[in-house]
Amino acid sequence: MPVDASAYVAPTAQVHPEARIGAQCRVGEYCVIEPDVVLGMGCVLEPYVYVKRWTTLGEANEISACTVLGTDPLDKNFTGARSYLRIGNRNRIREHYTISRGTAPESETVLGDGNYIMTAGHIAHNCRIGSNTVLASCTLVSGYVEIEDQAFVSGQVAIHQYSKIGRLAMIAGGVRVNLDAPPYFLYGGLYIKPDGLNKVGLRRAGFTAEQMGVLKQAYQLLYRSGLRLAEALGRIESEIPDQHTLHLVEFIRASKRGIARQSGRGEEAPEEVETEL
Q: Which positions ≥6 away from 264 have C-beta within 8 Å?
């Protein structure tokens, strides 16, 4: 049955016969749901939500008014072919938000579980958002961006295409993210620059004082030692290896755009990395 018997669909909502509405879902007034859409159990759509074709939501997602999911990519290379938006479980997406599906045929935009996405922003095509992240209001996420689990992106942040933000990184309000942001650290400035350890986020995530101390040493080696990047990474691996510092090293070595490295106060300026866009 396309609409489960226990689901509620408002009289003014339009649900295509080829959409699937799971048990205990609530579809509000004036919502539009296109074919090939799947809503998992317990999803709530407030009034005026538009869910476009080839969008899948897991269970217990809450979508606020005037949000559009699965929009065509804002990309001149888009041909109109089938692509996907896949959203996990227990996400909260607030008012006036748009999320695009993938550009290339059969490609996808993916959101994990437990994310809190605030108002009036956009996640572009082919992004990969992890789980338990926060994206504050008016933040714009360009195409092919990756955001790892538990990252916190403040309001009015603009993230350049192909950029990556690491696990438990915190980006301050209004920052222009034009380089990769390694995990566990704070970032500020008009153009992104490191600004210490994300102590509050790490404590909330259950990191011990000892673990945070090791990450602080890693930060000092990266940003305060005056070492070149390769030397700093080698010393982190040899002197303070644990699961978190090794993830940090792996993230940085995989960077294609280059990482944010603060200049001034004796630190090395950001290293230039060629990137195909």
A: none
pTM of the model: 0.93
Report d(CA 195, CA 154) in Å as an integer.
Answer: 15
* Residues 188 and 172 sit within 8 Å (Cβ to Cβ): yes
Strand, helix or coil at 276? coil
What's the average model confidence in pLDDT over 221-243? 97
Provide the 8-state DSSP code for 96.
S
Mean pLDDT value across residues 135-161: 98
Please provide the CATH number assigned to the domain covering 8-198.
Answer: 2.160.10.10
3-state secondary structure of 80: coil
Could you give phi then psi for residue 118, rounded to 5 degrees? Answer: -85, -170
Give the Cα-Cα-Cα angle 204, 206, 212 (nearest 5 degrees): 95
Per-residue pLDDT tens over the stretch 4-57: 999 999 999 999 999 999 999 999 999 999 999 999 999 999 999 999 999 999
What does the pLDDT read at residue 275?
31
**Radius of gyration in angstroms for the set of CA atoms belonging to the chain, rounded to a whole number:** 20
pLDDT band at 1 (very low <50, low <70, confident <90, very high): low
DSSP, res 246: H
Residue with tokens 């403040």: 154
> Residue 108: what residue type?
E
Tell me, what amino acid is at 28? G
| Domain limits, the chain | 8-198
Distances (CA, A) of 78 to 82, 99, 105, 129, 130: 10, 15, 9, 21, 25
